[in-house]
Structures are given as C-alpha cells and as structure tokens.
Amino acid sequence: MLAVPDNDKLRQLLLYGDSHSPEGRSGALYKLACRLGESGVSPAHTQALIEFADKRWGKFKDRNDWSERLQSLLDEADKRRPANKFDKYKPVDIYTLEEQAPETDWLIPNILAKGTYMLVTGGTGIGKSQLTLQLGMALAKGSQWNDLIMEKSRVVYGSHEMSANEVVYFTSKLRKGMDLDRERDIFHVLPIGYTVSLLTDEGRKFYLQYLDDYDVFIFDTVSSSTHLAMLDEATAPGLVAFFDMLTSEGKTVIALGHDTKDAVRHSGARAEDMSGHRYLMDRASTIVRISGDVEDDEHVTLTWPKIRLGRKLPPTPYVRDLETLWLTKTSEDYLHTYTKKRVDKALRDSGVGPLKPDILDPKTDRELF
Fold first, then answer.
1. 23, 215, 285, 361: which could join 116 in a potential S-S bond, CB 3.0 to 4.6 Å?
2. Residue 365 has pLDDT above 70, yes or no
3. Positive or negative, the Cα torsion across 210, 212, 218, 222?
4. Which has the higher per-residue pLDDT, 347 or 288?
C-alpha cells in the first residue's frame, strides 16, 4: 500500500473496486492497471497491487489463464507509465497547439469552463451564499440566470458554515423563484454546519466518495474548509491542490471566500493582499465579487476581476427580491440614489432637512442634482 500514490480515488479503486464499471471486476482490474501505470507506480509494485486486488475480489487468481491475464494487465500499465511525468509535454508551435487543443466545454459560456475552479468573494453578510445557491440551482435546472446561460449539471453544495435550518431559510425563499424537479434536477446539499478540512485525509475522502455522483462541487466557504488559519502558508496551496484533484477528473469547483476580514480592514490591507488569499485568487480561472452596502438588502453589484478564458464583464448592478432573494440585473444607478437617500434621512433626523443642490439649470433656473 505504501507504493500507492497519495490519490484517494486510486486507493478507493484498489480497496473496493469500481461499482460503476460495466465489465464488473475484470473492468475494475483493467482500470486499476491503467491508473497505476499513469501514476508512475513501478512494474514490481504494480504487479503486487494487482495481485492484492484480485485476491480481495476473487476474479482470476484460481483460473488457469491467470498468468496470461496478469501479463496483459502489466503490459497495459507499461504502455501508460511515463518515464517522467513531464515526458508527454513537448515544445509545439502555436498553430499546431491550436489544432491539437480540445474545444472548451463550457458550464457558463465564456465565463466558466467545465473542469475549472471559480472563486466567489465578498464581505461578510453581503450575500455570497445566496448568490451561489442561485447559481447552483440554475445549473441544476439548466436554465438561464439573468443573461447567463447555464449548462445542466449535477450539483452538490457543501455547507461548512450554515446548518440545515440556515440553509432551509434561504432555499425555502429561493424555491419561490425557481422550483426544482426532485428527480431530474440534481441539486443536493451537505448541511454540515461546521468545518470539514480538505487538508486532511478524512475531509478529502468524505468528498471523493461523491466524485462520480456530481459535476459541480460548491464549498461554502474556503475558511471553513480547513483546520488551519487562512494565513497559514500551507492552507491555500492545500485547498487548491484538492480543487486541482477534482478539476483533473473533469469536475468544476465553486468556492466562496471572504473578501475582507475585520482584522485585515483594521490593518489597512485587503484580504487579497495577503499571500494565502492571493494564491486562491491566482489559481482561480474565474473570480466574481459581490459588493454593496450591507444595510441595503435590495441592491448589490457583481464585478468580474478575472475571467481567464473570456473577456471581463463590466460591473453590473442587481436588485434583490426580498421575498425570493433572487437577483435581477438592473441599469439603476442605485449607489448614487441610495447614498442620497441616506444623507437626506440623516439631515431630516437632525432637523436640517433634505440636501439641496446649489447647481441650477441655466435654461430653467431649476435646481439640478
């Protein structure tokens, strides 16, 4: 077992086989041989591990053709075993690269490709979870979210901060705006409510058991997906390594991260100025930030600091339906309007009265604002 790389999916295959293989145990042995070869396990260790697996599963060991079967599996592993993990990469001109590169498979066209990682950021209480629940439900439905088209997907939402009651508070409202088919629209929630560290074997295995069941993995939030402090030098690389493991299997990761923290604000720096947060942002293919005034529940703005495979989108204001929590794109300049209303209210409360502009329209002599 010590020869097996630190790959939970490979270990699961070795110990328990592959219940999804249409060829049963023989197909699982073939898959195991391929995976061991691709992982660079030595021929001697590959043989020992295949024999170990076959003994557990009782497929070929007592058959007369076992030696031939074993040799064919070892040959298959040899075909796939790289002398060096970088051997498959060779210099290539840009025209050949364009011809050979696979076509991008989009989850959200021109924004989020399948098999990549997106980071959703924003201040505490601004509505990151609400936004991501909406995106997850729209992906499960395969419907349009505002002007974004969603590819129908199987989605699991790992709630490491909100308990079941807290999740239900949001989803019961959101379902008024989008009703999901319980059989066909796969949007499942893991309402854990406490830290599940993706830096531990236990935490990784917990999610890897669902690898074949879902296309999109949502983690709410990155700070509750680690047992270490976010500024610990091992945290961000460890989280990204796990995200890379999922994306290498064709899965898409959406992770929620706090844009700023009180301690960071007091020091005069933003969270992304800290090395761990920069690493999470640097490795993301797409970043969306939700911002606004936490005292104004109705209005937020989405900005897209990074879209690696597409053009950046302009900042866009949205209005939140307080009954259903769904966001609707708007052209309203609410920041100007909301700020003026707050100033006017403060002046009225103090007895001064609403703010009066001192600019006049030269044509009508009326006040302008």
1. 285
2. no
3. positive
4. 288
pTM of the shown model: 0.69
**Residue 54 CB: number of other CB atoms within 10 A?**
23
What is residue 54's predicted lDDT score, i.e. its pLDDT? 79
Rounded CA-CA distance 288/263 in Å is: 23
Across 218-229, average pLDDT: 92
Helix (H, G, I), strand (E, B) or coil at 12: helix
DSSP class per residue in 190-244: EE--S---TTSHHHHHHHHTTTTT-SEEEEE-STTS-SS-TTSTTHHHHHHHHHH
CB contact set of 300 (below 8 Å; sequence gap of 6+): 126, 127, 290, 291, 292, 317, 318, 320, 327
By CB atoms closer than 10 A (0-12, 13-18, 19+), residue 75 is exposed
pLDDT of residue 271: 45
Other CB atoms within 10 A of residue 281 CB: 17
Strand, helix or coil for residue 96: helix
